[in-house]
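Most newcomers find our protein records easier to grasp once they have seen one. Sequence and backbone structure share a record, each on its own labelled line. Nothing more is needed to start thinking about how sequence determines fold. As an example, a complete record with its sequence and its structure tokens follows.
=====
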Amino acid sequence: MAMLRFLVAVVVIAAVLIGGVSLAARFSDGPMGPFAGGPFTSGEVHAGAEPDWGFVTDVETVELQLLDPDRSRTTWILEHDGRIFIPCGYMDSTWGRLWKQWPIEAERDGRAVLRVDGTLYPRELVRVHDGVLAGPVLAELNRKYGVAAPPAAVSAGALWLFELAPRDPGTASAM
């Protein structure tokens, strides 16, 4: 009986700690590890021409904030042919749909800010539906992260893929 009480206490303490960190993260400047964070409050907005995105080839994770709702998360990033993409898996499962709300929110309102090494890039998330067009991007997903996904996964909706396109200058002022 004492062991059962101990195990229950450990589970309750872990749940309270995880809940507390999750709540605190929502008020922080960006995500805290796997916990979604608040809106970005630091970083310098990129000014000038569209960057050469080849530098993200060696960047494992980036921070992405949607403008509505204004939450941020840590995610992978892919570059192909001068364009950048964010993959999101498990979207054909109940667990994936409960766990990952941001792709659904991004499809409604694609305005976002990408933060890489302290620099902020206003972007527009545009979902890629065509698995054939996604083929080379998925090859990069496999090379960089060791995740093999066929183009049919994008067409079927199991893997959502977003291009981070330059944001329309008319909406770029809203950070």
Observations:
- The CA atoms of residues 138 and 150 lie 7 Å apart.
